[in-house]
Amino acid sequence: MDDQAQVVEVQRRRSRAEAEQVAGEYEGSGLSRVEFCRKHGLSLATLARYRKRQAQGKAAPGNRWVTVEVSGSSATLESRGSSGLAVVLPGGRRIEIGRGFDARTLVQLLGVLER
């Protein structure tokens, strides 16, 4: 029988601030979850926990509503050929959905963005 010792490096627990920093680094890295975790020696579950905590910290407890600003009249939007709906994300990214959009395609897009 071969006795092989497995060496496992035990890391100290990260503080809440350190965990938030790691989650923020992931969000800005442009890497996939697997690539980021491999590069930083994290498990996928740990990164998921950090991201969940960060998301919960940003939202006010029990408040899931956001402020919506109407940017112009519907006549103006129609004349410009603008979409039926536009969402501007905090990082400056913009998602526009045209009138008569396919709801399943939107659900697929949201699934990809939430990964």
Number of strands: 2
Strand content: 5-15%
Q: Total number of helical segments?
A: 5
- Please, what is the oligomeric state? single chain
Mean pLDDT: 75
State the distance separating the first and last CA atoms.
Answer: 44 Å
Total of domains: 2
Rg value: 21 Å
Give the H and E element order: HHHHEEH
Compose a concise summary of this entry:
With 115 residues, the protein is mainly alpha-helical. Helix content is 48%, strand content 7%. The chain starts with 15 loop residues before the first helix and ends with a helix.
Which characteristics define this entry?
5 helices, 115 residues, elongated, mainly alpha, two-stranded antiparallel ribbon
Structure explained in plain terms:
Helix content is 48%, strand content 7%. It is mainly alpha-helical and 115 residues long. The protein folds into two domains: 1-60; 83-115, no CATH class. A two-stranded antiparallel ribbon has the order 1-2. A hairpin with a 5-residue loop joins strand 1 (85-88) and strand 2 (94-97). The longest helix is centred in the middle third of the chain and has 15 residues, at 44-58. The relative contact order is 0.08.
List the helices and strands and how they pair.
Layout: H1 16-29, H2 33-40, H3 44-58, H4 74-80, E1 85-88, E2 94-97, H5 103-113
Antiparallel strand pairs: 1-2
Helix pairs in contact: 1-3
